[in-house]
Specification:
Alpha-Beta Plaits, Pseudouridine synthase, 31% strand, Structural Genomics Hypothetical 15.5 Kd Protein In mrcA-pckA Intergenic Region, Chain A, alpha+beta, 4-stranded antiparallel β-sheet, 3 domains, 9-stranded mixed β-sheet
């Protein structure tokens, strides 16, 4: 296995960043300075800044029910991160897509780069489903706008919306194929609404089901 792939799988650092570390002389292979493209064999000793790196684990995919208040990052800059909820040996897992700090629900994490690409690439059109609550009822004209596409600074936003029975607020089930930054919140803000709650319940074939908030489970690699 090439050294950048080996270290990316073992640490969660991107291959590009690994190559930069190699060029900076911060990585060694069997106590000799590594070079880009080197191959790592079984029982080789790889170090970053003098610290040995554990052998990469087998490919794994987990579902996490992310609570509100946690950021999807290793460095929360003072905030709680999703990695606070996971075992230390899962620190190398990378999230597939994001949920902002104020959102909750299904977050997939893996060390399998091909699987992550398959699930996240727009060409594969993986449907993501959310439960969303608005601060007030959705007007009929805005329902039409949502079907036609709402103009945002990064292009039109298309959301498939199903309205659920509720009181003074508006409860929705939303399906979407895209995953632009805070897209659902920005779409409704452009129409004059505030999203007061956003909870993802499915991502492609993976469902949140009865997974409790803050808990995780292993998934089959499909």
């Amino acid at each position: 296995m090439r050294i950048n792939a080996y270290l990316a799988k073992a640490t969660g650092i991107s291959r590009r960043q690994i190559d930069k570390l190699i060029q900076q002389g911060r990585i060694t292979l069997n106590d000799k300075e590594a070079s880009v493209g080197m191959l790592v064999k079984e029982h080789d000793n790889v170090k970053i800044d003098g610290h040995s790196v554990n052998t990469p684990t087998d490919n794994i995919l987990i579902s996490l029910n992310k609570p509100v208040g946690y950021v999807v990052s290793r460095n929360g800059q003072g905030a709680k991160t999703i990695y606070d909820l996971l075992p230390k040996n899962f620190y190398n897992l990378k999230p597939i897509g994001r949920l902002d700090k104020d959102s909750s629900g299904l977050l997939l994490l893996t060390n399998d780069g091909k699987l992550a690409q398959s699930l996240s690439h727009p060409s594969n059109q993986k449907i993501k489903t959310y439960q969303v609550i608005l601060d007030h009822k959705l007007k009929n004209e805005d329902k039409i706008k949502l079907k036609k596409g709402v103009k945002l600074v990064d292009g039109l936003s298309y959301l498939k919306v199903k309205i659920m029975p509720s009181g003074f607020s508006e409860s929705l089930i939303i399906d979407m194929e895209e995953g632009r930054n805070r897209q659902i919140r920005r779409t409704f803000k452009a129409l004059g609404y505030i999203v007061t709650d956003l909870h993802r319940i499915s991502f492609g074939q993976y469902k949140l089901k009865n997974l409790s908030s803050g808990k995780w489970r292993k998934e089959d690699l499909k």
